[in-house]
């Protein structure tokens, strides 16, 4: 662990008079974040606007080379970034957590840099010739959450820059230092003002969504904030990508092998201690193998250490903030009050430091219980018993959100048939949340619109332009 160099990076990004950011595991001071004033926001947008013309004039190859250099810079600072991320967000260094997140930043950047974008010939016959080109949009305003602060920032930054836009990014007020550090490292390779971070709270985010010189908003966060942004961005007709909350269902079929799927089920639900948009948040299990699945999951859960992120053996951490811990505690209490059966957890130590909530599995829960129907976004998984597969599919599709979903089965054909009936942006088979920078990702229903990743993700941050002769 490299806490020394992490502090050096911190010194370069923090403001001595800034707002305190505390470690969610210990309550210790991590650093002090600068706050952007409205005048500074205007200045940032103006600088990004000016820089965009020169950046857009470069070829795809030139921009791609610069983005690969930025990925090199991330890799050179990987451990410093991971330590800071762990301290600010709370996630452990190991497991699918801080080091994994920093590695993913470089991988996503390289993929966005490498995918060819060619004009598409739409028509070429005796009636004429038409081509579809993808032009830059201008300045992209990026607004992100606190759960995967670096990786989600890269999801917004990488395609935007690749397509010739510049970016002004507002991190969540809970995790600004992680994003400031990432942007600082990226800027060692990028031209000036192509990427500018503006730390601040939701009011600054609102100002960004209203700004006349922002062409597109890339937003990742809650459904409620997404709806507010759609309203404020309407006046200037901004393009938008909305990656919003979910409440992903997983359906286990009766031919699945409980022991074989237990560990993947666990990480599908508990990756980043459950604070993941496309995590498995409600699991439907047939009566015939219900007890075996519950037992296998409980055995896996019992052996996963939770604690301070910088302690190398931990793979689960605290909730990032007190508000989220309260949501998880309220929903688990609602479940236990209703008579649901706790398999493990649900016994938080409220006197202990940090926002820890124990790994919790809740069985024999009513399908309409709030722990099932509301997004818990934390380490508590409800396991719902079913006898009719049609009923389970109806429950899974019964909410207004539809980000991810999964089907678990030993029979690929059956799994594919059930997957086709799921209402979600992605349905995984025998895994959950396995995203890939080459494969588009986005939400159905109120989980948002627009795609990220892959060629489709690049096109989303471009202005389609038809040339017809
Ligand atoms: P929020 O919606 O509360 O906040 C997200 C961002 O929006 C923050 O930077 C926030 O600023 C900013 N913001 C708040 N109000 C406004 C406003 N009126 N206008 C513009 N920006 C505003 O989400 P959380 O940070 O709590 O993130 C958790 C949620 O994000 C969960 O629902 C989760 O499912 C979802 N999510 C979705 C993902 C996806 O890819 N679909 C991925 C990850 C998370 P500030 O924090 O400073 O107030």
TrEMBL record:
Sorted alphabetically, the keyword list is:
Oxidoreductase
Domain (Aldehyde dehydrogenase): residue spans on this chain:
19-464
Query: Which CDD domains does the entry mention?
Result: ALDH_AldA-AAD23400
Q: What InterPro entries is this protein classified in?
A: Ald_DH/histidinol_DH, Ald_DH_C, Ald_DH_CS_CYS, Ald_DH_CS_GLU, Ald_DH_N, Aldehyde_DH_dom, LUC3-like
Catalytic residues, per the record, are 243
> Family assignment?
Belongs to the aldehyde dehydrogenase family.
Descriptive protein name: Acyl-CoA reductase-like NAD-dependent aldehyde dehydrogenase
């Amino acid at each position: 662990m490299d806490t020394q160099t992490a502090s050096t990076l911190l010194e370069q990004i923090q403001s001595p008079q800034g707002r305190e950011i505390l470690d969610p595991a210990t309550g210790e001071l991590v650093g002090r974040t600068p706050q952007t004033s409205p005048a500074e926001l205007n200045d940032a947008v103006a600088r990004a606007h000016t820089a965009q013309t020169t950046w857009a004039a470069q070829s795809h190859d030139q921009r791609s080379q610069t983005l690969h250099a930025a990925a090199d810079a991330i890799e050179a600072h990987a451990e410093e970034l991971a330590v800071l991320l762990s301290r600010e967000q709370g996630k452990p260094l190991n497991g699918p957590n801080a080091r994994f997140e920093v590695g993913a930043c470089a991988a996503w950047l390289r993929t966005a840099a490498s995918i060819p974008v060619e004009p598409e010939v739409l028509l070429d016959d005796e009636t004429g010739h038409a081509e579809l080109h993808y032009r830059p949009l201008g300045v992209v305003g990026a607004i992100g959450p606190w759960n995967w602060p670096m990786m989600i920032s890269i999801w917004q930054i990488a395609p935007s820059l690749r397509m010739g836009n510049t970016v002004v990014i507002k991190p969540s007020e809970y995790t600004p230092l992680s994003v400031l550090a990432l942007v600082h490292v990226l800027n060692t390779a990028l031209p000036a003002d192509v990427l500018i971070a503006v730390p601040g709270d939701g009011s600054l985010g609102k100002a960004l969504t209203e700004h006349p010189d922002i062409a597109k908003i890339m937003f990742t966060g809650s459904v409620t904030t997404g709806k507010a942004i759609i309203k404020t961005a309407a006046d200037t007709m901004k393009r938008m990508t909305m990656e919003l909350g979910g409440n992903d269902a997983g359906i286990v079929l009766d031919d699945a092998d409980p022991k074989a799927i237990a560990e993947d089920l666990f990480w599908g639900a508990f990756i980043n201690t459950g604070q993941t948009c496309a995590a498995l948040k409600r699991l439907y299990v047939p009566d015939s193998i219900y007890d075996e699945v519950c037992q296998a999951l409980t055995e896996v859960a019992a052996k996963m250490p939770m604690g301070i992120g910088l302690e190398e053996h931990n793979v689960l951490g605290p909730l990032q903030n007190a508000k989220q811990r309260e949501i998880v505690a309220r929903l688990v209490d609602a479940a236990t009050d209703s008579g649901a059966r706790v398999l493990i957890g649900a016994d938080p130590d409220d006197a202990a430091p940090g926002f820890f909530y124990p790994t919790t599995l809740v069985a024999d829960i009513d399908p309409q219980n709030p722990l099932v129907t509301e997004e818990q976004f934390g380490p508590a998984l409800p396991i719902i018993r079913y006898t009719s597969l049609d009923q389970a599919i109806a429950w899974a599709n019964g909410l207004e959100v539809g980000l991810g979903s999964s089907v678990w089965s030993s029979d690929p054909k059956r799994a594919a048939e059930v997957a086709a009936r799921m209402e979600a942006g992605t349905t995984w088979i025998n895994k959950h949340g396995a995203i890939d920078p080459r494969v588009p990702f986005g939400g159905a229903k109120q989980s948002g619109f627009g795609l990220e990743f892959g060629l489709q993700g690049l096109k989303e941050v471009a202005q389609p332009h038809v040339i017809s002769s």
